[in-house]
Predict the structure.
Amino acid sequence: MASLALVVVVGVVFRKSGASLVWYDEVASILLAWLTYYGAALAALHRAHIGVPTLVDKLSRNLRMFVVLVAEVLVLAFLCTLTWTGIQVLSVLGGTTLISLPWVPAAVAQSVIPIGATLFIGAQLLSLPDAMKHPISGSAKASPNAGSSTGEAPQ
C-alpha cells in the first residue's frame, strides 16, 4: 500500500511541475491490482469476506454443516479455476511487455492472478478448521466476527 501511495504522490508531484511521468499511471494500476488480490487473500485468512452467518445459524446443525462444506468446495473450485486460468494467461503473454516500461514483461504484472489465487486457496484451507467449528457448535461465539457487518469484533 505504501508503494502505491508513493507512486501516486510522485506522479502527482511530477505532473504539477509540468513533467509528467509516462509510467506512473500504469504502475499504479498494477500495484492496485496486486493490493486487491493480496488483500483479498489476507481477508480470506481472517474469514472477513461477506457472508450471511445469521441465515446459516438458523439452519439445523446437519444442514448448516452441509451448507458450509458446499460453500467451501465451490469457493475452492473457483479459486483453482482462477489459478489455472491465470497460469494460462501468463503463457499467452509470453513476449509482451508493459506499454510505458518496455523492459518489464507483462507477465510480471499479470502474475498476481495465479499468485493471489494460490494465496487465497492457502488462506481458505488454513482457516477451514475454524470455519468448521462454527457450524458444529451452533454458536455465533465460535466466530468472533459472526454477525458483524464490518468484520470487526464487538467491543
Observations:
- The chain has one domain: 32-142.
